[in-house]
Write a structure and sequence with these properties.
This protein is an alpha+beta fold. The chain contains 5 helices and 17 strands. The chain has a 6-stranded antiparallel β-sheet, with no helix packed on it. It has a 5-stranded mixed β-sheet with strand order 10-9-11-12-15, with no helix packed on it. The protein starts with a helix and ends with a strand.
Length: 217
């Protein structure tokens, strides 16, 4: 599902402002497909679940690198989302933030590319975790973790009582803060409605009818 959503977003992008840059050339979706394949090939079983690579180096031929460079930020953001969504669908865990770095490789031919992946822990060690009702664990590193019904959220909940963008988990210092995003039905910590709350080990977070548990690393 994650890769399909990525493909649809990239198709819309290619049909728009960047159509000429992609016509008959290497397509961004090919990078997305290879990234998810790298995750599947290099996943490992850890104590808490299946751990996937979170750092990726993509090597492009000079001509492709120059074409992609003008919208590199957009492409990078979409590729990160594709990795995150694939991990969510496969119940993979990360030990640090997702990082994708695109390099120029003068030794590659046009439309060919290479990807190297590895598991890297965040600078402060493994992430804290949000444990979902089905047992999945979502790592909380330096990136903001958004909870909601929209497919681009890091935690997507199929719950009609959850807003499209319901709440966020943000790292502040050595802790994690839960922030309600003006949701319709509110956000609870240990059964109490909150607008913003610093989480403690074992706290339960409820959005709509879905209750999750916060666990520190």
């Amino acid at each position: 599902m994650g890769l399909e959503q990525f493909e649809r977003r990239l198709e819309r992008m290619v049909e728009g402002a960047f159509a000429k840059a992609f016509r008959g050339q290497l397509q961004p979706v090919e990078l997305g497909r290879r990234l998810t394949r790298e995750m599947d090939l290099h996943r490992t079983v850890g104590v808490r679940g299946v751990i996937a690579p979170n750092h990726f180096d993509i090597y492009l031929a000079t001509a492709d690198y120059e074409r992609f460079e003008s919208f590199g930020d957009i492409l990078n953001r979409e590729l990160v989302e594709a990795v995150r969504e694939h991990a969510s669908g496969e119940r993979y865990l990360f030990l640090g933030p997702i990082e994708i770095v695109i390099h120029e490789d003068t030794g590659l031919s046009v439309s060919t590319f290479a990807i190297e992946s590895e598991v890297l822990e965040g600078s402060g060690g493994p992430s804290d975790w949000l444990v979902l009702p089905d047992g999945r664990r979502v790592g909380i590193a330096d990136e903001v973790v958004t909870i909601g019904r929209l497919p681009e959220c890091a935690v997507v909940l199929d719950d009609p009582n959850v807003s499209r963008r319901h709440a966020q988990l943000r790292r502040e210092g050595d802790g994690v803060v839960l922030v309600d995003l003006g949701s319709t039905n509110g956000t609870k910590v240990n059964g109490v409605l909150v607008r913003e709350r610093r989480l403690n080990p074992g706290d339960t977070v409820t959005v709509g009818t879905t209750t999750m548990r916060f666990e520190p690393a």
